[in-house]
Amino acid sequence: MKSSATTWILGGCLAAAAAMVSWPAGAHHSFAVYERTKVVTLKGTVKTFQWTNPHVVIWLLVTPASGGEPEEWGLETTSPGVLTRSGWTRNSIKAGDQITAEFSPLRDGTHGGGLNSVTLASGEKLTASFASGEKAGLK
Amino acid sequence: MKKIHLRAALFVAVTAAGLSAARSDDAIDPAPTLKDWQAMAKQPDFSGVWTPNVSNQVQQERSNPPPWKPEIAKQVEKLYAEEKAGRPFPVFDHCFPHGMPSFMLITHNAFELLQTPGRVTLLGEVDGNRLRRIYTDGRAHSADPDPSFHGESVGHFEKDTLVIDTIAVLPQAYLAVNEAVGIPNNGDMHIVEHLHLVAADTLADDLEITANKLLTKPWKTTRLYLRQRARKYEIVEGVCASGQFTDGVDKNGNSIFAPVKFKNGVPVGSDVK
What we know:
By secondary structure, chain A is mainly β. Chain A is built from two helices and six strands, in the order αβββαβββ.
C-alpha cells in the first residue's frame, strides 16, 4: 500500500465503514475456523503488514493462476507478543515485499487463512509457534 | 528481592496499596514505609514476565477436564462439535477479557507480575484490560463487591506460596477450556489458587474452582508459566480492538486506523487501496 493511496478512509467514510465491518465478531477467535488439515501455498506481494493484537494479519495481493487483477488474501497469525518470541518484529515484513505464504485456508473458499509460515524473498522462513516460548530464560 | 530493596528508597512516598488488616471499604491506604518494602524481602520472588506453557494447557484440557454437570456437559459437547466442524464459538467475542479463571487457564500470551507492598498485580499482554489485582495487605473480601471479569482477589503468603481467594466474578465470564469451548460461570463462583515456584523460573498455579452452577464438585487443575528475563520478551502493549483496523491514510494525509472487513469473525478484506 502506498502512502498516497487514500481510498476508503476512516475519517471520511464512517458510514461506509460501518457497513463494511461486520461488528462485533472481528477480533479474538479460535483458529479452528481454518481448515487445519489443508495447506495452501501462494506467492504474492504484501499490501499491508497489520501488526496488531490479538492477531497479526498479512494482506497479500495474489495474481490468480488464470490471470487478471491481483486478489487480496487476509492471512492471519498469532499476536505480536507471541510472534516476537518466535523471532518476528514489526519490520519483518513490509508493504511491497514478495513473499511465499503457507496457510490453512478458510473452509468456505473466502480468500483468507491461518498462517503456517512465510518465506521472504531472501529465503528466510518465519514461522509462528507457541512451543518456541515454552522455555524459561529465553535469550 | 534486591530490586525491591532498591525500589524502597525511591518509592517510600508513593501511594500504594494499604498495609493494615481488614479495613472497611472507605479506609484510606497509608503510603508504604521503608519497613514495608524491606518486609517484602521475605516474599518469594514471583516478579517478571511469564509465558504460559500452552502445550501443557492442551494436555490438561484433554487429561483433566472440569467435572461438568450432565446438563452442562451437553453444552460442552456441542461446543466441541462446533469447533471440530470449523465453527468455533467466540468465547472472546467483543474483545472482552478472558476473565477469571480463564485468564489463568487458557491465555496464550505473557503476563507481567508485579510485587509491591500489600499487593500483587498481574498485567496481561493480550489486552490492557487483562488486569488482576490481588490484595495482600490483610484485608478481607468486601461485604458486597462489584462483580468484575477478574473478580475480587485477596491473598496472603504461606511460606513460599501465595494463596489467592477470588470471588465476585461476573456471571457472564466463562469457565473456558480453550478459545472455543467455555460456559459462563453463571454466578457464585469461588476460586482458590496456590501460586508457587516449582523451579527457579517455573511458576505453578494450582487452582481449585468451585462453580456450583456448572460443576458437580470443585475442579482442581494446575497451569505452568515460564519466566523470561530478556528485555525483548517484555510484554507489549495490547489493544484487542486494534485488530479490527489496519494502517490507513485519510484524504488529508493523516495516519488513521482503517477498518478491516470481517466474515464470521475473521478478517477477509482490508479495503485499503
